Automatic annotation (TrEMBL):
Domain of life: Bacteria
D-alanyl-D-alanine carboxypeptidase-like core domain boundaries: 104-219
Species, as recorded: Cytobacillus oceanisediminis 2691
Record's protein name: D-Ala-D-Ala carboxypeptidase VanY
Keyword vocabulary terms for this entry: Carboxypeptidase, Hydrolase, Protease
Length: 292
């Protein structure tokens, strides 16, 4: 009896050790509000050497990776990615996954990022992925809507597929909701800047039924914050508008994120020699992300 008790205690200790060790390798994400530093006129000379100016124009509201597309905010013509390619003509980008047809298009930049994610999945022996749909122009979207109806398709201009930032990913083995590929995407896509755009628990927010196959590129660190706070894109953009300025730290790297409402062109100050990305929200402003 004592022997079995000892073995049970040993198993429990090993289990706890495994859990604790595993948690050590989980990335720690810290998110907090910060005060954006905007020098006043008297301080301009002192800050000129360590800051630079960025002009924000109204047209930037409709450009970038954080554009919200839904029934209220359609895709603007200028929002469509300019680097759309036919994936079947780029074998170097389709290693590790299949294509359901020879006419699947996507932003070349997003295709590179998706390829990096597939390489990571391959290292974990999750490899039965297939892209079933990518970018659709307005004509193709309209034809799909006419054929499938409103229960299965969206009108032209109201689908994320019209941007070039979204794609439908399936498993060649089983339905994505049950497949290892679907579970891997749900758990890991955020690390590569992608999100599951229409999660099961956010149908009341997105207005779209659960789609375990539909992923969308928003970029890092936004994908990490959305994962940490369990935000749909609608919720994340509302959160940024409310907080206006937040900072996010992970693995020793820090990002400052600021929302600016735009009704006319304006100039903002950002740290010099920093990586800066600007994206509109397709509504009323832009999000400026600075990696320190």
């Amino acid at each position: 009896m004592k022997k079995w008790g000892f073995l049970l205690l040993l198993v429990l200790c090993l289990g706890l050790s495994y859990i604790n060790m595993d948690s050590l390798f989980e990335p720690k994400i810290e998110i907090q509000q910060y005060n954006q530093y905007e020098p006043d006129q008297e301080e301009d000379e002192r800050t000129e050497s360590n800051s630079s100016k960025k002009e924000i124009t109204e047209d930037q509201i409709y450009l970038g990776n954080l554009l919200l597309v839904n029934s209220s905010y359609p895709v603007q013509p200028e929002s469509v990615k300019s680097d759309i390619i036919n994936l079947s003509a780029h074998g170097e980008l389709t290693q590790g996954y299949g294509l359901l047809g020879s006419e699947i298009y996507l932003s070349e930049d997003i295709a590179h990022r998706f390829s990096e994610m597939m390489a990571a999945a391959e290292e974990e022996e999750v490899r039965n992925f297939s892209i079933t749909s990518g970018f659709r122009d307005f004509d193709e979207q309209n034809a799909l809507y006419q054929e499938m109806g409103s229960d299965y398709a969206l009108p032209a201009g109201y689908s994320e597929h019209n941007l070039g930032l979204s794609l439908d990913v399936g498993s060649t083995q089983m339905r994505m909701a049950e497949a290892p590929e679907g579970k891997w995407i749900e758990q890991n896509a955020w690390k590569y800047g992608f999100i599951l755009r229409y999660p099961k628990d956010k149908t009341d927010v997105t207005g779209i039924q659960y789609e375990p196959w539909h992923i969308r590129y928003v970029g890092f660190p936004h994908s990490a914050i959305m994962k940490e706070k369990n935000f749909a894109l609608e919720e994340y953009l509302d959160y940024l508008k409310k907080e206006t300025h937040i900072s996010m730290s992970m693995n020793g790297e820090k990002y400052n994120i600021a929302y600016y409402p735009i009704s006319q062109s304006k100039t903002i100050n950002v740290p010099a020699h920093s990586h800066v990305e600007i994206s509109g929200n397709n509504m009323d402003g832009v999000i400026v992300t600075v990696k320190e």
